[in-house]
Amino acid sequence: MQTVFDSSVLSPAEAFGAWEEVTRDEVMPTRFRPVHTGPFSGRLEVLPMGAVRLAAMRYALLESRRTPRMIRQSDPELYQIAFIHSGLHVLDQARQQVPLRRGQFVLYDSSRAFTARAAGESMLLQFPRCRLPLPAERVEALSHTALPFRAGMGRLLADFLTGLADESASCTAEDAERLGAVCLEMVAAVLAHQLGASGLLPPETRQQATYQQVLDFIRRNLHDASLRADTIAAAHHISLRTLQRLFQHTGGVRNWIREQRLEACRRDLASPDLCSVPVQAIAARWGFPRPADFARAFRARYGTTPSDYRDQARRPGTGTGAPGQDPGAPR
């Protein structure tokens, strides 16, 4: 993500005015008022993803206001979803006051005046209203409501956004645009789930939501050596054929599971904190109960044995990637 504001490189006299100017350009025009008496501190990072924009924000206590006059002067016609990571945030819009705490998110509309009082950290996701494939009158029912993002579909979306923020440095502009499209489909699935209206979504959006749910299920059960395609399909009430179609771009669900398990083993073998854990124990932890099967699969994937890889990772000045190969590269 690109850092567009950091109060630590500005003088106290400049910081607050600079924050207002940067957020006007990077988020939307909003009038700010400092609530605390000390110097203002804040940080803003942004990740453009085509029609979608993700911002990671940290700020001292302040009040922001978007007035009807400001809306008439400039309205990007966006939905915004704020994910609260720390601090207390209070949103007042359409005569409804919504207190928001860690682990909650709220949807609001740039075309409606609001006042917010906030301090802490949050992620802000913005996207055009016209890109959400749900009736506006149904979506309106979710506005001004504190919703959880630490369970269910909300957690999947929050995890996805956090992963984007963490890995954005390795994304090209084309990658970011494709990920933005995926993000929109996930947002639509999350909001439709909250409305009990998943049937209103286009088939491709429902398919993307199912795919993300399956990925999450597999990641949480990688340690289970009995994890199989039929159990995954049954857990999500889909056919084996549908499951395989979801993973056809990865070489099939079985191949994807094996790759994720091998990568988890590779990370553990390279970890100094796990140097006393036997190789066989690490393999068993990630769903490889038979040492010979694990050794053969690891060598085929990374070009070396698990023990040799661990030895090389311990040597000073060596990286944790497999010798001669990018550990994230497909074979």
From TrEMBL:
Keyword vocabulary terms for this entry: DNA-binding, Transcription, Transcription regulation
Pfam families for this protein: AraC_binding_2 (PF14525), HTH_18 (PF12833)
Classification via InterPro entries: AraC-bd_2, AraC_XylS_family_regulators, Homeodomain-like_sf, HTH_AraC, Tscrpt_reg_AraC-type_HTH
Superkingdom of the organism of origin: Bacteria
Ranges where the HTH araC/xylS-type domain occurs: 212-312
Region (Disordered) location: 305-331
Keyword 4Fe-4S: no
Name under which the protein is recorded: Helix-turn-helix domain-containing protein
